[in-house]
Amino acid sequence: MMSGKIKFAVVGCGHIGKRHAEMVHRNEECELVALVDVKDQSQLGIEQYQDVPFFNSLEDFLASGIETDVVNIATPNGFHFDQAHKVIASGKHVVVEKPMALNKQNAEKLIFEALHKHKHIFAVMQNRYSPPSVWLKELLESGKLGKIFMVQINCYWNRDDRYYKPESWHGKGDLDGGTLFTQFSHFIDLMYWYFGDITNIQAKFADFNHKDLTDFEDSGFISFDFVDGGMGSLNYSTSVWDKNLESSITVIAENGSVKVGGQYMNEVEHCHIKDYEMPELAPTNPGNDYGAYKGSAANHHYVIENIADVLNGRAPISTNALEGLKVVDIIERIYALKEGDKK
Questions:
Q1: Is the bond into 99 cis (omega within 30 degrees of 0)?
Q2: Separation of alpha carbons 216 and 179, rounded Å
């Protein structure tokens, strides 16, 4: 149990970092004690936090001695491992935006260090909290669908030069990691949460219109088997013209079929199951709007609430470090087939 408010620091004050700061600030059990970003404070649009100590590096913040319980990492993907490792080594809990790391080996190192330090790693996969996600998880666990035959996940988004700007870390191989890491890891997390691990992976990749924008593919067809039974596919692209098309999951099973669609799996589009009536779901939060782009569902307040629940002994972690590791592992295994694709 925590005595007093849980003290948070946020590293990275871009769109996502600001959202973390806002959710901490709004939560009565939490307190924002520091903000960290390499940019000058005046450039970041964080005027409402003038009274919160600001640092230009994680190292300066950790050396400051400010009492902190949890550090939220919301920096470019390529920095997640190193920064999270430093936070854990300093004896603090860490919240890591997706992905936890850009390879399985580094994710395992974080878990190893956290176990030694008796600290928690909270992996951020906020799409699990949307009402259709919760409903589908409960439906699958109820067994009402029977055996799972086939699962198809389609992620078709627009990411063009409005998103992949020359000065941005997006699209850079070492900082971004690839389309599956930055754009679609939330949906791979949902797939793993629903159906477990995959095997017998086959893949085909293409770069249709991002050759001058990114260091990696913009599209892929992935097929696989689920370890627990059934076959699946993941089809994705960021080459859609002008705006996002969909993120959907279709489940064909023994006793029925389900499709959850919308821009980020936020609408139940089809439900036809033997002896089952679809309940009315709570409305889904609108997505995060980053200028011309919509990202994942806007559920970060649930992430902060879960951290407060965990540290006060009221609940388990909603997305634990091993689940964060599995998402990295699955993406790494898919991308390992890129070399074979070139042959």
A1: yes
A2: 7
Enter the DSSP assignment of 162: T
Residue of 203, 158, 236 whose CA lies nearest to 336: 203
Domain limits of the chain? 6-123, 128-298
- What phi, psi does 65 have (nearest 5°)? 80, 5
Distance of alpha carbon 320 from alpha carbon 122, whole angstroms: 6
Q: Write the single-letter amino acid at 11.
A: V
Q: What is the DSSP string of 30-68?
A: EEEEEEE-SS-GGGTT-GGGTTS-EESSHHHHHHHT---
Contact 303, 95 (CB under 8 A): yes
128-298 classified as CATH 3.40.190.10: no
CATH 3.40.50.720 assigned to domain 6-123? The reply is yes
Euclidean distance between CA atoms 75 and 59, whole angstroms? 14
Residue 314 in tokens: 């009221």
Summarised one tens digit per residue, pLDDT across range 59-103 is 999 999 999 999 999 999 999 999 999 999 999 999 999 999 999
CB 313 within 8 A of CB 1: yes
- Find the radius of gyration of the CA atoms of the chain: 20
Instruction: Classify strands 219-226 and 198-206 as parallel, antiparallel or unpaired.
Output: antiparallel
Lowest mean pLDDT among 92-101, 104-113, 247-256, 283-292: 283-292
Strands 287-290 and 293-297: antiparallel
pTM score, whole prediction: 0.94
Helix axes 300-311, 15-26, angle to 10 degrees: 50
Strand partners, 267: 261
